[in-house]
Each structure stands twice: as C-alpha cells, then as structure tokens.
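TA notes. Do not distribute before section.
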Amino acid sequence: MDPQEMRPPLGPDSWRLVGVDIDGTLMHWGGEISDPVAEAVERARMCRNHVILATGRNIMGMLPVAERLGLRRGWAVCSNGAVTVRLNPRATGGYDIVEKVTFNPRAALELIREEMPDAFFAVEDLGVGFLVNREFPHGELVGRQRVASFDELCHDEATRVVIRAPGVDVDHFDDLVHRIGLNDVTYAVGYSAWLDLTPPGVTKASALEALRRQLGVYPDHTVAVGDGNNDISMLEWAGQSAAMGTAPDHVKAVADEVLGSVEEDGVLTLLDRLIDPERLAVM
C-alpha cells in the first residue's frame, strides 16, 4: 500500500466507501427489500458512508432498487463493474454514465456455442436491455429483449454478455468454462447455470477502486458485502468485508466475517455498525 494512503483514524469528518451487492444481500430471493434494510441504508448514508450499489444487474435492473432505497444521488456499479453511473435526478432516466468498459464478445461466444449450441445468449444493450439469440424466460433479464442473429450479437463492443444453459448442472458448467479457456474475458458462474462475461480485468472491485480514488477515500476505509462468485473480487479488495450466511463456502472464505442469511436481513448487522450519530453529514 502507498504509505500516503495508510489509514488515518476514522474521524468524524472521514468518509467510508461501502460496496453493497443487491440480489441475495440487500434483496430477498423473492425480490423484496425489507423496510429495516432500506431504513438502515438511509441512516448509514447520513453518517458519511458512500453506499454504492455494486451489482451484476444492468442499469435498468439497478434503478428500481436505488429508488426503493431512496438513492437519488451518488454512484452505482452495474454489469459486474463494466458500467459505473452517477445517480442524478435531473438527468434523463435519473442517471449519467460516467464509465463504461467494453470488449468484443465474438471469440468467447463462438467457443461457448460450439460446446453448448442450445444455450441462451444475451449481449447488453446499454440503458435499453439486451440483444438475444432467443428470448430468455420471463423475469430473468431486465429491459427490452430484441432477438438478433449470432453475427449481430458479436458485431458491437459489449459491456456484458450473459450465457444461460437451462438443465445444465452448475458444476458441469463451471468445469466447461475452465476447460474451454475463456482467457480474454472476466467471468463469473452464478448459482444456476448462468455465466456473466465482462471485459478483461473488469470486476466490481475494479470499478469500486476507481471510485475510491475519485472520492479520496482511504483504502482501509472501504467496506464490501455480498454473497456470490461475482462478489469475491470486492470482498478481497475491501478493507473490511462480509459475506452473507447464504453464500457458498468459498465466498465466505475470502470475507472477514459471515453475516446472517438474506432472509434474516443479515446485512443489517453490517449496516448498523456504519451508523454513528457523531458522523452525521449534511446530504
């Protein structure tokens, strides 16, 4: 660590950066965020904490969550780090895109299509939805889906690509993506046979680190909480990290502590520690 960035005491005027996953962390699997969690997020923000949603969701999927939490200003990391937005109630749609990182998905999609010809493919259409080879099941993608040819899916630079293989065992899917060697992208396998591809080196951690530097937050004053494979990078990055009780064991292993389950609102344990009346800020 740069000696100039060594942690000073966390005084009443110091700010933290708090990266928070959405699904399985803030949000129950049924799609609800409880009132106590929403209220704790608001109180934490009032106590000099930059609470930043860090999610695999696209912008369209993140915005309703921000609204539920009363986040009208601040930042959010979407598409597993490929897209960073600044929430702005005066902007069209309520946000400005401040950073996006893209890649050409052709090589990865061709490798996966050869092994899984029946898989669903979706390429993010930023701020709109997805281009898909065929429509995904209802509720799996947020935003408009437009069916496109394989060549069209591969034509433009992409921020995120989703591959869905219904009926394929998760362990088999994980073994497959390692075997075919997806070397030119960053990827994360979800709880189901669901694969997210982002540009090389792009993760939630890389986007949060860029924001940390921009906001002038000391490295040890960073916090992260999550539950999935795509959260590992930010749990390893943060000065303090927590995994949800429902996270897989290998995710828990990289965190400093394990919270209760999402259905128990385990994230409240962490959020409540961030609330300190002596650190109140004018928002």
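Switch to the second chain here.
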Amino acid sequence: MNKQPIRNNLIIELHIPDFDVAKKFYSILGFKVILEHVPTADKPGYLVMKLTTEMGETLLHFYGGNDLVYNQSYFKNYPKDTKRGYATSITIPVPSADEFYNKVADTLKDHIIQPVMDKEDKEMKWRDFRMEDPFGFYLRFTELIDWGQ
C-alpha cells in the first residue's frame, strides 16, 4: 500500500449503503473517485472522492457501500430508514456559490433545500446554498469566509 501524507487532519466517514449512488450524485457535483475498496458480501468497502477547485481540495470519505453498514456496532441501534446525516451539516467551500449552484441546480433540483442566498451575521456576509444528498446528509456550499482557520 502506498502511504501518502494526510491531506486533512480530520477525516469524517459517511456511512452509506450504496457507493454507486454516492458516486453518481457526487460526480455531478464535480467530485472524482480517488480511492475505492469495493465491498464484498462479508466485508464493507471504503470510498474517497475529491473535489478540486481554485480554493483547494475537499475530500469525502464513505464507509460501507452495502447492507453491512447497517450492522456497524453503533449505527445498528437505529432503524435503517434513519437519515444518515441527521443533525450534521457538511460545509464545502466553493469559489462562487452562484456558479457552482448554476452548474448543478437543474440536474440535482430535487436535492436543493435552499437556493443561493446572501447570509450575514454580526461580522460577516457570504453567499451559499444548501442541499441534501441521497442518504440524508445536509450539504452547504458556501463562499469562503473566515472561520478562524
């Protein structure tokens, strides 16, 4: 196995039952498969997809890929139809919320929760839009703001 430096110090694994659905959906968003261990009848798989923009790389890690995901020690305590991403927001920075939205809005219109909007709090203003992926993960595509990084 070729070991590469970690590109991100935080890896969040999204546990899903179907890699093909994820690959189709996230490919429309511009992500490309960079690693895939195909699940077998007795072993879950692993999938990593990457989006590259002028802002850098965004990696998404998926675990499972088949019904074995429902037997994971923690998640097996919940019904199979529980939204996978309940109470989780995945924020993906993009150079232009408008351009990114226009690129995917027609194809993924059934997944859009909130179209592009201006947002602000006491100190910042930004534009973003929100979607839900096929597994229930809540995605926020936002123009870069200062999160103290």
